[in-house]
Amino acid sequence: MSKPSTVAFEAELTESAVAVSQRQTLRRALAHDASHYLLVPDAVVTPKTTDEVAQVIAAARMSLAPITFRSGGTSLSGQASTHAVLADTRRHFRRIDVLDEGARVRVQPGATVRQVNVRLARFGRKLGPDPASEIACTIGGVIANNSSGMACGTEQNTYRTLESLTVVLPSGTTIDTGAANADETLRAAEPELVAGLLKLRDTLQRDRTLVAEVRRQFSIKNTMGYSINALIDFDSPAEILAHLIVGSEGTLGFVAEAVFRTVPVQAHAATGLLVFTDLAGATASLPALVDAGFATIELMDALSLRVAQTEADCPEEIAGINVEGHAALLVELHGATEPELDRQVDQVAELLEILPLAVPASLTRDADSRASLWHVRKGLYTAVAGARPSGTTALLEDIAVPVAELLPTCTELTALFDEFEYEGCVIFGHAKDGNIHFMVNERFDEPGAVDRYRRFTERMVDLVLARGGTLKAEHGTGRIMAPFVRRQYGDTLYVLMVEIKHLFDPTGIFNPGVLINDDPTSYLKDLKTTPTVESEVDRCVECGYCESACPSRDLTLTPRQRIVLRREMESARANGDTVLLESLEADYEYEGEETCAVDGMCAVACPVDINTGDLVRRLRAERQGTIPNAVASAAAEAWGPISRAGAVALSAAKPLAALAIPATQVGRAVLGKDRVPLYDARLPAGGHARKRLAGDARADAVAVYFPACVGTMFGPETGGIGVQDALVTLADRAGVPLHVPSGIDSVCCGTPWKSKGFVDGYAHMSRKTVDLLIEATDNGRIPVVSDASSCTEGLELMTRSAAERGIELRIVDSVAFAEQFLVPNLTVTSRLGSVVVHPTCSTTALGTTSALHSVANAVADRVVTPEDWGCCAFAGDRGMLHPELTAAATAAEAETVAAEKYDAYVSSNRTCEIGMTRATGNPYRHVLEILEAATRPRSEYVTA
Q1: CA–CA distance, 330 with 226 (Å, rounded to integer)
Q2: Which one in 186, 308, 369, 725 has a CA-CA gap of 20 to 30 Å to 769?
Q3: How far apart are CA 31 and CA 738, in angstroms?
Q4: What SS3 state is found at 244?
């Protein structure tokens, strides 16, 4: 978009509440998506409502400024990028309304597929489309790309399960196609559009040859061009419009919300990995497997299996294969009931016996084993792409052919890889549907690379079309295949598609260059190059899987954006663009570093195991000067008195909040907001010294108790006893002896130093703590129990150094310890009616969230975990340094919690409890506190 258009567009929005941003950091953060294209928008808008979207569209129309809508940024074909105006609809369009006991669901475009399915799960329902990127892809993209997935085929894809949608057209008209009078409203508002659609409908339906060709094209998965099958599937103008919008990739209108018909969740499943000696054996077995009723049949070639074997959590079924030319099919049977699944398993038993398998087949119903296999498959593209050579760009293609043509297609593709000297190419995908993905790596900044890619693409297009296939099965046409739509459909149907685009968008401002493009070389422009930056960055494939779990996603940046901005800074540095570099660096200190909670939730979601927190910790370490490092090291040496001083200060500030708050505000203004915490009257008073719990070592001790220093810093909520006294009391009550070592006040899990990048201070504290624990545990003979989940995680990491001495220190979180050792030996004397639980990022990383729920269930009739829960981002003192971070991170969960009153509010980490107390106004306590209150002898019982 030219600068005059930018100015004109912004001028049109002068009276609107929608702000137009041309800030380099925002523009470049949103320029990157999962595709191999990179277009930097001239301007970014973030509308909050449908009315604001209409204002943005009106401004674009009046200024002739092209506009592209972007949500999850997981699209792979370049359809969510622009050089013009980019509208970010991820932040404010997330409402989900479950209808008719889950039979239908109304969703806005910013909600992810996983979020919708979580809402539907209680009703035994789910969305039909099941893309592998369900953790990150949003409903806006699902509709725009006509998403399908691994099990839904063409029967339960977006096109087939969409009931209605509310769309804002390029003219500014907003239409709800589900309204009773939708056709009449549409005719009145858009007479030329309706007349044109009906004319195209009638023209197509009169030509039997064209109708047959359309049906053939859409008999397999097909997202090339527009969904012109709508012209023969529907007669109603509103229905035709709605289904043309499906798969239109933002070129025909903005979908403000949609209503889907949901499908039943098959409650029972059996999963197996069928390993063949070669690809031919796998593909030859497909007809028999399809006829046998397998719900999913996923293909993985030899290189896919090898890459999966490099993952830390690779399941044994894959790890045990001596891969040569092998191929595997991941298959699954579904049943509504256990007996139904039993029948299916029995029916396929004979088939599995006669298949030419390299290893005997077995089907597992174990949830963990099944999840492990599917984790490999869902993360396969990103895992393969993450293993690519540094500096290369991963290109994922997506085709479909009739199943009978799958083997020759794969064989010819492999030959093409060799001919064009593409190494490390993989083939995988939805074999049941003849839908495969293949990936090549290209270094677009090398001479001849673009021409090689052009020649390869031309040959690949000829190959697929010769086999009766489609050039895009489920990833959308985008920029990558737009020049080839005419070749796939022929002139007549292509011209029909061009007419559809003109009817909806006569000025061509909606996502130009996408889906319809007469420039035969357009797919070779704006290709993404990936500079080598640093180890934490280089593996990232910009898939966006991390974003929905990031606590700062609605405040500043996401993990993906933190990484891509490092790439942008490196490119600016290499290009000598000091103005851009300085602008990005200035913003990055706050947006990239200071507001990162380093909670590790991104690593849980990342298929290539990137923990962006590690990057941020290293950057913080590089920023720390000599004096701060010296102070941090001194604090590690004198941690006992310092932690007690912090507690005393909090207790002293409590009655003097009116003075303490402005005092810390002045300190923050002088020394910096990332240096001085902001005192808040909602903070608790200080806690007690840990040494009061210490005693002589006991030969009968079951575990060493490591009370967290956070319990010293922060006392319990009013009326509570705190987790330290709760755990000691519970252990005594259950007859489980614990040992608290002397010297406990001087040690720590090290997180305060590690999270801020104080390397020397962390090393000093690690030595002290590990030495103490080795002695206290009798060289690891008994485990260590920590009463704060984040500290448990920190100790686990810290005590790995003991292994270098040949000593295995076992660290156990207190909720897991309570579940195993305390609850079975306690009698509940006073049950609670309801408890709401806040899991933490650390219980997620440790795998102890189930134990947290188990302890809560032991004392409450009803235990609720909010569907919108996420990391609270208090992150030690981060919630005091940047309270806006915790406010943004907890907003959705707090809203859910506020909708109902509970008897107790619990978590498993003191700072998380403080963060949630601040967010909700309700007193969150450690779950062991309510366990202690609920198991008191009746003579001692008082309300907790």
Answers
A1: 32
A2: 725
A3: 55
A4: helix
